Amino acid sequence: MFRYLILTLLLTIMIISCSSTKSDARIALENYLVSMKNEKFQEAYDSLSKNVREKCKFEEFQERASDNYDAIKYSRLVYSGENKVENRVNVDFMIKIDDREIDLFDMQIMDPYRDEETAKFILEDDRWVVDKLIWPVDWCEKIE
C-alpha cells in the first residue's frame, strides 16, 4: 500500500512538472506581448520575422501600436494551445479586454466578437519570430 502511495505521488509530481513547461515559441509570444504592454515597441518589432519587417516599417508599426495602446493596456491574454510542424509553430490565444475601461466600438484594433487569435512563428537565426502580424497590430497600412 505504501509503495502505491509513493508511486502515485511521484507520478503526480512528474505530470505537474511536465505540464508547466512552456515552449520557446510561447515564451517568444509572451515576450512580444509584454514589450507591447510596456510600450517597448522597438523590442516588439524586433520579434517580427524579416519578411514581416519588410512589409511593415517600424514607424507604421509604432503608430498602430500607439493608436491601440488602451486596448493593449487593459487586455489579458489566455493561452489556449499550439501546433508545431517542422520549423513552424502556431500558438493560439484568446484576447480578453476589460470593456469597463475602454469602448471596443471606438477601437480599430479588432473585431469585438472574435475570441481567438493565432500567432504564427518561424525559426529564424536560431530564435522563434512572429511571421504574421497579430493582435494588437494586425495590419500596418493606413486605412483611408
Would you kindly provide a written description of the structure presented here, covering whatever features stand out?
- The chain has helices at 2-19, 24-37, 41-46, 50-55, 58-67, 69-73; strands spanning 75-85, 88-97, 116-124, 127-130.
- The protein is an alpha+beta fold.
- It has a single domain, classed as Nuclear Transport Factor 2, Chain: A (Roll).
- A four-stranded antiparallel sheet has the order 1-2-3-4.
- The longest helix is centred in the N-terminal third of the chain and has 18 residues, at 2-19.
- The protein is globular and about 65 Å long.
- Mean pLDDT is 78; it is low at 104-113.
DSSP helix fraction: 40-55%
Structural class, please? alpha+beta
CATH superfamily: NTF2-like, domain 1
> Whole-number radius of gyration?
19 Å
Q: Average pLDDT, to the nearest integer?
A: 78
Offer a concise description of the structure.
The protein is of the alpha+beta class. It has helices spanning about 1-20, 25-35, 40-45, 50-55, 60-65, 70-75, and strands spanning about 75-85, 90-95, 115-125, 125-130.
Task: Quickly list its features.
4-stranded antiparallel β-sheet; 24% strand; Nuclear Transport Factor 2, Chain: A; 144 residues; alpha+beta; 41% helix
